[in-house]
């Protein structure tokens, strides 16, 4: 690291769990963020400011006025712009050393697999059950971790799926693809603005911890928040030996 980097990341360097070696590892890391909305906004901002060396931002949507109540990486001046390009502009002001690739398209499983092959892990910031199943399939196939978060109304949840560990459940273990889950989203149900900031910040923290193998991440634990009472609950997740997605992986 050069002198500017030593100063920029000084508060990380003081932490025993990070230090110079950990910060250099972050600088050499790459993360794919799928979705640059309410969750993706704090995730992108914190990963860039924390020194993750390369971010791949994937979103085919455009910034709208109704987004600005919670999607804090975007601005009024960038309404109508691609969310990925808007986030790129913001990151350039936060940390110009962060290398950012933008993908302005709706990705299918094959394309997601191509993108994931070039990064260390993925952060799910979407609001779509089928998309999360697709993320899970490629992560299991490539043995790469992903951090998953969700938020609607006043309820949020966050966890880490990491099938590099034999005992770790995958997303399909916890939420079987056959389940007929509701398709509620923020556009139809509403969402409390600070909630996505809380959940997104936890996603960013879990991403950094997973990249560094620091502390204990949320693998095997689903954290659920009721923002009206500000109470957290923890649900333990177990691997399903008959899971249609990950049952065949090494035990």
From TrEMBL:
Keywords attached to this entry: ATP-binding, Nucleotide-binding, Nucleotidyltransferase, Transferase
GO cellular component: cytosol
Record's catalysed reaction(s): [molybdopterin-synthase sulfur-carrier protein]-C-terminal Gly-Gly + ATP + H(+) = [molybdopterin-synthase sulfur-carrier protein]-C-terminal Gly-Gly-AMP + diphosphate
Enzyme class: transferase
Molecular function (Gene Ontology), one example: ATP binding
Record domain THIF-type NAD/FAD binding fold: where: 9-245
Residues forming coiled coils: none
Domain of life (superkingdom): Bacteria
Enzyme Commission number(s) from the entry: 2.7.7.80
Pfam families in alphabetical order: ThiF
PANTHER family: ADENYLYLTRANSFERASE AND SULFURTRANSFERASE MOCS3 (PTHR10953:SF102), UBIQUITIN-ACTIVATING ENZYME E1 (PTHR10953)
Assembly behavior: Homodimer. Forms a stable heterotetrameric complex of 2 MoeB and 2 MoaD during adenylation of MoaD.
Biological role stated in the UniProt entry: Catalyzes the adenylation by ATP of the carboxyl group of the C-terminal glycine of sulfur carrier protein MoaD.
Similarity comment: family membership: Belongs to the HesA/MoeB/ThiF family.
Listed name of the protein: Molybdopterin-synthase adenylyltransferase
UniProt organism field: Advenella incenata
